[in-house]
Amino acid sequence: MRDPAFPHRHLLGIEGLSPLEINHLLDLSERYVELNRGANKMSDALKGRTIVNLFFENSTRTRTSFELAAKRLGANVINMQVETSSVTKGETLIDTAVTLNAMHPDVLAVRHPDSGAVKLLADKVNCAVVNGGDGSHEHPTQALLDALTIRRRKGKLNGLLVAICGDVLHSRVARSNFLLLLTMGARVRIIAPRTLIPSQVERLGVEVFTDMTAGLKDVDIVMMLRVQNERMRGSFIPSVREYFRFFGLDRAKLAQAKPDALIMHPGPMNRGTEIDSDVADDFERSAIREQVEMGVAVRMAVLEVLAGNNAAHNAAHSAKGGRP
Amino acid sequence: MSKPAPKTKIAYVNARLIDPALNYDGPGEVLTDGELIAAVGKNLFDGKPPADAEVVDCAGSCVAPGLVDMRVQLREPGEEHKESLRSSGEAAVAGGVTTMVCLPNTNPVMDDEATLEFVARRARQNALAKVYAYGAVTKGLQGKELAEMGLLADSGAVGFTDATRAVADAQVMRRALQYAATFDLLIIQHPEEPTLATGVMNAGEMATRMGLSGIPREAEIIMLERDMRLVAMTGARYHAAHISTSDSVEIIARAKRQGLPVTCDTAPFYFALNELAAVDYRTFAKLSPPLRSEEDRQAIVEGLTSGVIDAIASDHAPQDQDSKRLPFPQAAFGGSGLETLLSVTLDLVHNGDLTLVEAIRRISEAPAALLGLDAGVLAKGKKADLVIFDPDRPWKVIADRFRSKSKNSPFDGRAVQGKALRTVIDGRVVYDILVQGKLDQGK
User: Fold this and answer.
1) What pLDDT, in 10s, does the model give residues A172-191?
2) Structural domains in chain B, sorted by start
3) I want to staple B388 with a disulfide (CB 3.0 to 4.6 A). Which of A13, A24, B86, B422 is the partner?
4) What would the pLDDT profile of A70-84 be if each residue is shown by its tens digit?
5) What would the pLDDT profile of A247-287 be if each residue is shown by its tens digit?
């Protein structure tokens, strides 16, 4: 039977999830936080299952986090790093789906540089798919781990004031995060230069600021986003030093936030570009290391639920097929 | 046409004549004799069609001039796996289209007489429908050096365009217009500023939600506004293809009020669909220009009602499966359109936005007149290019059943009303699903 509290076959994004479903995943994750902190970190929840990490884009952190999560649940894990040349990457995607189906995996964790590519793959494979980041679209496990981090520190999500700062235009982390936070009743501000704010983003329910001092005023959470270096050479931003001056998080700007405001970053950080080392390493206020820890727990919860639903799906499917 | 003309006369009786040239929508008959229309009108035969004519009882269906589709990508030569002259011809006549005008973005590009004449010859041999071609404005569609527009016109090019690319360089466009004006040639622009149009769908909430890079509507608006200045400066005849925004309608309306020699068309995509069609990353809805907001769609309908938009073209852009079964950012632009042009245009009639005569005008007489083609008119002595259609027959678009080689229709699955029943070119029946009524022989 599918998990009635999270009956979805895939986790492709935060969009469309209800507060109850999100809380259910977070509650499950809490259990794994405890497990991971104990001496014996192994569970046998996914014993005998196969998890494939399919990455069409370089990633160390997310892939490692998924891999560790799957291994701690007792699953077999395969890492597939697929090179994507511009000519063949589309073909590779469909071809890869066909190949994977023959291997009968239970869950695929997929990262792809194109928005929507993970959904396309999910439509073609016969197993559960978790989106590990698709283009500038969504990165749902990142939003869940951020939510777990916040919930543990602040005790709630509802009613918090959250600022998401930086390259919102290209960020899947930003999209998944504000969708989740808004769903859970938080208020979200985005702060960035106009060149990095997506068109009509305010229609999704966020408040838009272009000034860090005004935008950080009285916020409970400061989420910094990574800015890709290639966008720093005049196309979106004139220079690193100018960006840091106006949009980098330093002590002076942070002083506008609530005194107990939490600082978050999805990593890897560009120190001196979007965040001052001084702030990033502030043990009291920076939750950056904790985010990584929560990442493993959240991915364990997601893999467990999806693998369970997948088994239920397959059972129902074969029952139907076997009917006289 | 090289094939022998039929010997018999055909009398189309019990018909509802739709003749945009005379603004006529009413009962009538048509008599074809060989390749030509021998007679057309009301009470033509006084109940007694000529004895030597085959009598076709249309049973109240509409008889209209064969449709003229002024924007079709043929893909031959160069990409015959997507569409050939034969497959596009079959698609055309199944949709009531008797004349296609094709873009020069073939491989090789139609920027010299030889390629143009090659296509003309291949079309005569292989295409069911009549084929005319545009010549390129610039060599290789590169937007830099002028193509031989005068010679191409002499070889039969009916207008000039760089197809799916705008002539973006202002100096090149200015000279293209000046040069075209020298020979009174028509320039057709894909109005889109390429440096702004680097995205994959309409900029706005939808694109933001889907994490896709947006093409702002200003890309079209800016190019049109620039071009209006260049038209005023040069006096050349200018046609804007597939306009898609409310501002575009306003710009063209203003230019027309100023007396500039400007016309425009739109495609069914832009009055029948909006950006929501791309939800779930449906690559069939990845079009150029992109599907816009609902407000823009409504403005395009209003532009058709008011007459600012002169014509409707299918913007038929066949793409093979491999080009569309890709992540949205990588998928090719374009939609198949020949087989849905009539039916989706008739939506405008069913919704009360256009009369039936006006709707048919935009896909027959108007584009023919605009391009100076001898088509789109029901009159004695003209070539017998006809479409017989039922304006109300409901059917569902199933792209897999298209005659076109490519099935990439954003209308796939749509319920529509109105269908071509018989298509006649030069008097010959080239498509026929007409079920004839039974004439009351006693009277």
Assistant:
1) 999 999 999 999 999 999 99
2) 66-376+392-416 (3.20.20.140)
3) B422
4) 999 999 999 988 876
5) 999 999 999 999 999 999 998 898 988 999 999 998 889 99
Question: Which ipTM was obtained for this model?
Answer: 0.89
Identity of residue B291: L
Q: Which residues pair with B266 in a beta bridge?
A: B312
Verify whether the Cβ–Cβ distance B205 to A200 is below 8 Å: yes
Q: In what order do the strands lie in the sheet with B67-72?
A: B67-72, B97-102, B130-133
Cβ atoms of B431 and B423 closer than 8 Å: yes
Q: Which segment of A227-231, B101-105, B427-431 scores lowest on mean pLDDT?
A: A227-231
Does residue B22 belong to the interface with chain A, where contact is any CB pair within 8 Å?
Answer: no
CA distance A220 to chain B (A): 25
Element (H, E) at A74: none
pTM of the full predicted structure?
Answer: 0.92
Q: How far apart, in whole angstroms, are the C-alpha atoms of residue B409 and residue B395?
A: 15
Q: With an 8 Å Cβ cutoff, are A138 and B212 in contact? A: no
Measured CA to CA, the distance from residue B98 to residue B376 in angstroms comes to 9
Q: Can you tell me the distance from the alpha carbon of B373 to that of B280, in angstroms, rounded to the nearest whole number?
A: 42
Could you tell me where the DSSP H helices lie in B263-364?
268-272, 294-306, 321-324, 341-350, 356-362
Query: Would you say the C-alpha torsion B285, B291, B294, B300 has a positive or negative sign?
Result: negative
* Integer Cα distance of B146 and A30 in angstroms: 68
Strand, coil or helix: what is B199? Answer: coil
Closest among A98, A131, A113 to B328, alpha carbons compared: A113
Q: Which residues of B touch A196 (CB under 8 A)?
A: none
For B423, the token pair is: 């298509």
What is the C-alpha to C-alpha distance for residues A190 and A217, in angstroms, rounded to an integer? 12
Contact B208, A201 (CB under 8 A): yes
Residue B315 is a catalytic residue: yes
How do residues B316-357 score in pLDDT, each as one tens digit? 999 998 899 899 999 999 999 999 999 999 999 999 999 999
Query: How many other CB atoms are found less than 10 A from the CB of residue B208?
Result: 22
Amino acid at B136: A
Phi-psi map region of A58: left, alpha, beta (phi>0 left; psi -120 to 50 alpha)? beta
Q: Is the dihedral of CA B401, B402, B404, B410 positive or negative?
A: negative
- DSSP annotation of B378 reads -
